[in-house]
Amino acid sequence: MTDPRLADLAARSPGLRLLTEPADLVHYGRDWTRRWTPAPIAIALPSSVAEVQDVVRWANDHRIALVPSGGRTGLSGGAVAAHGELVLSLERMHRVLGFSPAGRLLAVQAGITLQAAQEAARAHGLIYPVDFAARGSCTIGGNVATNAGGIRVIRYGNTRDWIAGLTVVTGEGELIELNRGLVKNSSGYDLRQLMIGSEGTLGVVVGALLELTDPPPPAQVMLLALPDIDAVLAVFALFRRRLSLQAFEFFTDVALAHVLAHGAQRALAGEYPCYVVTEFDAADEAAQQAALAAFEEGAAQGWIIDGVIAQSQAQAEALWRLREGITESLAPHKPYKNDVAVRIDAVPAFLGEIQALLAREYPQFEVVWFGHIGDGNLHINILKPAAMDDAAFIAECERVTVLLAAVLEKHGGSISAEHGIGLVKRPYLESTRSAAEIALMCGIKRVFDPQRLLNPGKLFPVD
After folding, report:
1. Distances (CA, A) of 349 to 155, 179, 221, 344
2. Of 290, 312, 327, which residue sits at a domain end?
3. Coiled coil: which residue ranges (predicted)?
């Protein structure tokens, strides 16, 4: 280890694992974005809270920036280390620490994957209900950092709704316990909620108390074919009124074509403009009949053209793959992603305006829509033509994102629904947050991270 600063870190924390091989620097120095060249000084993989504190205190002494790292499945550049930072990966801190039957609380380290946390909950006859396609690789710490949502927000809400407590190492290396699992705690500011969604800029989340709940009743999955986006919104209103929805996800024919080309199986014979995968409670015959009645009413109104209901768990999984496989199927096309949100009541007007904007500004690009229509979260993916230069493609997309941000501001929306601001969306933060809000956020960061070493440049510029 030739760098004396790294030698000092190794001496301070003898059990700390440090990686400096070029392949490791690339692997740990980036997330699912590929727009920055990874260039971290090293990768630290602590196995204890004490080692995390050692790293943070060392970083303060040497004034070396830190990039906290979970599963690196983000799409906003929030886990990118491109300027000589030390990546602080929590992947070795992946244990379940305890379970409280009375409180229905699962204590976990931050590096545990979402899927492992879900499995631990099921072992106690309960569920941790936050869920999305990257469950096998994303981590609880990363979910907390971005307040991750996913496919069941309509039923269960976002990550912040299920965090009863957090253990955090501050920017100066102090260990703080936030809320400690209390149901009622009116003793000042709730710093736990402040940490959720802070993208690693205020502290390093090293542990979490997850609230668990009862498993939902038996459910059924239905795939619907619809004529247009207006019909998607009409069917959502109908199904929400008639059924107890667990999920309601939409995607376009363009998205479906990519998933089918990627290996998924077609479920409906025809080709249609829009599709919905919905999951709803179906515990008894009455609930199942209500679903059929809702389908028939939607068909009679001309909102539903065709549909299929899963007859087995395997078929349900196949239908869900049509939605959950979209991101993976688009990856080879190097998509430029917009992850936006508006209030549900603003969705119709916003969609009408934004569809016209994208059709006008992107005539040469393939645009793929999908998203969580039930919570106002839409994913817009612009696919890069194979012959087009990467830099030219990004520049053109960023030009249009400025216009998109203005439309979002007009409709009171957000430039980031569930992946954070990171590096990618930082130029557009002012479309979502006022100057006064941003100034307050900067001030909060200075309190928690006086030397501004935690994930600098993410969320807002280094000051």
Report:
1. 24, 40, 29, 10
2. 327
3. none
